[in-house]
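User: Can you predict the 3D structure of HHLA2 protein? Sequence below.
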Amino acid sequence: MLRFILKKATVLFFPCFIQLCCLHPKVLAEETVVSEVGTDALLPCSYPDTPVSKAKIYWQTSSGKIVHYFIEGKDILNTQEPEYNGRTQLFHSELQKGNFSLEIKRLTKSDQGVYVCINVPNSQKTFIELVVKDVEKNTTPQGNSTKETRDGNGSSQIKLEVPLLILLVLFPVVLQQSM
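Assistant: Sure. Here are the predicted structure tokens for HHLA2 protein:
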């Protein structure tokens, strides 16, 4: 009987597991940067063995949006996505040290996501997750606005929680019916 239940559970659970993994893929970032809407964020990327004169560094989102290109000592911004126009920069004084960190200015909620710093000549990639939170405000008893914390991750959590919730609700029902 126990073997039957385990077999049934495996048959029911496996498709749900596949759905969670495949429909909601998540690129694992090496580092997470947390900033607020309206502020600037520094996404770290370092390739110390890359000479600036031969560097081909591509910053893009995990979905392939072009954020910033740096090729052989020059910023190439004519192919940059419009939403990043005038908001990104590398620190040219740091490039000789192999520091290709990217600053994104005036963050918006749509900037949130995983960014990839690609060193083309060496086939290296660095994944950085940017979390953009709403501005913190709290209301004091006098009504003065100071800080109120809101989490900017609600929508992505719902996508994962709904299939899991369905699994947790349906699994006991199916087990009970099979007994």
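Helices lie at 2-23, 154-178. The radius of gyration is 23 Å.
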